[in-house]
Structures are given as structure tokens and as C-alpha cells.
Fold:
Amino acid sequence: MRPFVTLTFAQSLDGCIAARAGQPTKISGAESAAFTHQLRAEHDAVLVGVGTVISDDPRLTVRYAHGSNPRPVVLDSRLRIPLTSKLLAAPALPAVILTTSSGSQQLQLLIESVGAHVHRIAANDDGHVDLHAALDHLSSLGIRRLMVEGGAMVIAAFLQSELVDRLIVTVAPVLLGGLHALEFSPRSSKLPKLRNVVHRTLGDDIVIEAETRW
Ligand SMILES: NC(=O)c1ccc[n+]([C@@H]2O[C@H](COP(=O)([O-])OP(=O)(O)OC[C@H]3O[C@@H](n4cnc5c(N)ncnc54)[C@H](OP(=O)(O)O)[C@@H]3O)[C@@H](O)[C@H]2O)c1
Structure:
């Protein structure tokens, strides 16, 4: 059985997750950042795309809440992850890098020499890591609950593949005019209906949580 997938991101009032593509942008406040860290602690692994690693250099750890660090997972079809990224250079747990046959052996050896694990997964028609195969693989590693933290292409890919079970979106009272959360997403007819919607206010932000129905 594939892992249960929680898709989560922070967006501005105008639906943006960054001021522009590739630019790290602080959107949510301290209270919702702590909530995100609590969510990380409730998952076995946290997954991002290599685009987010290159632009934001996240640690994906639990620092503003109590609990264990989840296993960091990166979708990286061509092994573009920088060796200097915090996930490789200063890991709390060894990162799992999911790549395809396009990632070179030499890069794999370099990445593994710093302690991360590289796993080769089937590619989809676009040459990216196939998400169904990726989730099956993560399941075989014992990952039951997966948190997907973005960025825009990865959000779209999980929605497109109908692989989201729960959606948690933090909406912050700022306007960005930048990279939209659903920039690359499928047509509205392909998006899930939301049910059992709950929302809470954390500082100045509103966090909306819902189950998906496909
Ligand atoms: N506000 C938030 O909550 C939040 C959270 C995270 C990120 N962000 C923002 O999002 C932006 C980065 O987003 P992004 O769209 O550029 O990058 P991304 O979604 O983080 O990563 C996209 C890359 O992942 C790789 N990938 C591998 N398999 C894939 C698959 N099946 N589907 C999609 N991608 C796959 C692809 O590179 P290869 O082809 O080389 O594998 C692709 O270019 C940054 O500006 C960051 O600040 C915001």
C-alpha cells in the first residue's frame, strides 16, 4: 500500500508560494511555521522537488516543535542536488534522493560519499521520477505517512497524479504577485473535491485543512 500523502504549502492571499520562481520567500508567521514543524514530526518522511532544494536550501527538520525529524526525500531525476545543500552537507538524517536512469553514476557516488542514499526509480513520460513508482518505493522503505512540501512543479505533479489524501494550506495576509501554488496544475476538472474542511487561525495566518475526494 502506498504511503498516506499530506500535501502542504504556505501561500499569499493572491495564491503565490514565492515572490518569483526560484526565490526563497518567507510567507507564513512564527505560529504557522511551528505548526508546519509539528506536522513534519507527525510524518515518516518529508518530500520536496530538487527545485526547492536549489532555491531554498531547506533542512526539513523539526526545530520549532517537539518530535522526531522525518526522513528527507528529494525528487531529483538528474541528480542536480548541490553537494553543499544542507540536506547533504549537514543532514539530521540521511536524505533519500529519488532519481532515474538519467542521473550519472559519478554524481551518485559523490552524493553517497556524503551519506545520502540514492535510489533509482522508473521515469515517467516526461523523464521525471514516476510518482506512483516513487511512492511504492518509499513504502518499501517503511514510510507510511509522507508530507509533500512543494514546490510548484511537485505540487502540480502530485495533484495531476491524484496522489494527495490530505491538503493543508497556510494562507498569509500578504500579496506577492509571484509564483502561483497551482501554476502548473491540471485543469479544474482534474482537481479533487475537498471535504471535512477545518480551519484555524495561527497568528495572522489561516490554516485550512481538508481531505481530498478524487
Ligand atoms: N511556500 C511554500 O510552501 C513553498 C514550499 C516549497 C517551495 N516553495 C517555492 O517553490 C519554488 C520551487 O518550485 P519549483 O517548481 O521550481 O521546483 P520543485 O517543485 O521544488 O522541483 C521541481 C523539480 O523536481 C524534479 N522532479 C523530479 N521528478 C518530478 C516529478 N515527478 N514531478 C515534478 N518534478 C519532479 C524536476 O527536476 P528534474 O527534472 O531535474 O528532476 C523538477 O524541475 C521556490 O521558489 C520555492 O521557494 C514554496
